[in-house]
Amino acid sequence: MGGCKHYTEHFSPNGCGSKGKGWKAWSYHLIPNFVFKSACNCHDYAYFYGGCKFIDKAARYNADMEFYLQMRENIKKKVFFRRWYLYSLAKLYFDSVRLFGQEYFNWFDTDDLWDSHRDDFF
Length: 122
Hints:
55% of the residues lie in helices and 3% in strands. By secondary structure, the protein is mainly alpha-helical.
């Protein structure tokens, strides 16, 4: 499984929840990190780098799926009796980014910028 290697000075993750201003920041205050903070930070990183909307149409889905898989990996390290609850939350977080995350994904018009950053993420 992949994951984010590092962050840049132009990017700062915020854990779980959206990073908007005004009414768009509502979820940041309501959504707890639980054991998902590192997965949320990597997901923020993937959305920051984005993808080319003409060539890599699956970039957002791939970022969301990697997010879900990372959360599931984090859950495997927890006490057995808490896992069912955390798996349910991971699915809810995944479904939420699929439904509400479109406007936060950084789509590029050309693939040049995406190619220059692809090695930073994978």
